[in-house]
Write a structure and sequence with these properties.
An 8-stranded parallel barrel has the order 1-4-5-6-7-8-9-10, surrounded by 6 helices. Strands 2-3 form a two-stranded antiparallel sheet. It is α/β, with parallel strands linked by helices. Helix content is 47%, strand content 17%. Helix 1 packs across helix 11 and helix 2 packs parallel to helix 3. The relative contact order is 0.15. The two termini are 15 Å apart.
């Protein structure tokens, strides 16, 4: 059974300001960033953030000045290396260039190898050089972690080390966000007693996807919790789906 139009519209209106509009393609260039900025400033309001490669942070920040849209970038991306000093240096540069948010990949290969202290040290070191008003999202790469127990353990470690938000995926592995991963991560956030948030990323592209993840957040965290400071969608294609619903006639 298809979703009623009014429900689709409600989801679209709710989801659009939570989107981290993303271009992390290998062929991205300055023209693509300008186009991304234009896309993110929609007739229905702006997205939450633009997520771009580090080399485009300064350009995006300049174009978005005064627009109410954050600039996010990725660090230790996408493979989750163990190079903490490099992650810290890259974070410092991104912040200097104007980044508001850092999406840091957990060294998940080390975590899977039983060396969880590598990831803890990296998260703590990166958090230490970030002002308190900048958001640190930690990408767990849940598709690689595999099961809910490992996802929960990684979530708890990241939260204790200073993550402001837990993010599912880089979008560069076969399995991105899943409802099971979201459920495990949100339970950890609730149990932590912190103000940490959640970002569904990797394969989130339809209005149905958006509605499902918002419903999971509502059921675990309570209705009204999923706001721009606590909930994001990391996506390149979701915005088009949301706009298609908002632009459709009411009888559609």
């Amino acid at each position: 059974m298809s979703m009623p139009h009014h429900t689709r519209q409600e989801i679209a209106r709710r989801a659009l300001p939570l989107v981290d509009l993303t271009n992390l393609s290998e062929t991205c260039d300055a023209g693509d960033i300008d186009a991304l900025v234009t896309r993110g400033l929609t007739a229905y309001g702006p997205v939450a953030a633009l997520c771009v490669w580090p080399e485009f942070v300064q350009q995006a920040a300049t174009r978005l000045q005064g627009k109410g849209v954050k600039v996010a970038t990725v660090v230790n991306f996408p493979h989750g290396s163990e190079l903490t000093a490099a992650a810290v240096a890259d974070t410092r540069t991104a912040l200097s260039d104007g980044a508001d948010e850092i999406d840091l990949v957990l060294p998940y290969p080390a975590f899977l190898d039983g060396r969880e202290e590598v990831g803890v040290a990296m998260i703590e070191a990166v958090r230490e050089v970030m002002p308190l008003d900048r958001c640190l999202k930690v990408i767990l790469e849940t598709g690689a972690l595999g099961n809910a127990a490992r996802i929960a353990h990684a979530s708890n470690l990241a939260l204790a080390a200073g993550a402001d938000m837990l993010k599912t995926s880089t979008g560069k592995v076969p399995i991105g966000a899943t409802p099971e991963a979201a459920t495990a991560m949100l339970h950890c956030i609730r149990q932590s007693g912190t103000r940490a948030g959640f970002k569904a990323s990797g394969g989130v592209g339809t209005i149905e996807d958006a509605g499902q993840y918002l419903q999971i957040a509502d059921s675990i965290m309570g209705e009204g919790w999923a706001q721009v400071g606590t909930f994001r969608f990391g996506a390149s294609s979701l915005l088009s789906a949301l706009l298609a619903v908002l632009e459709a006639p009411a009888h559609a």
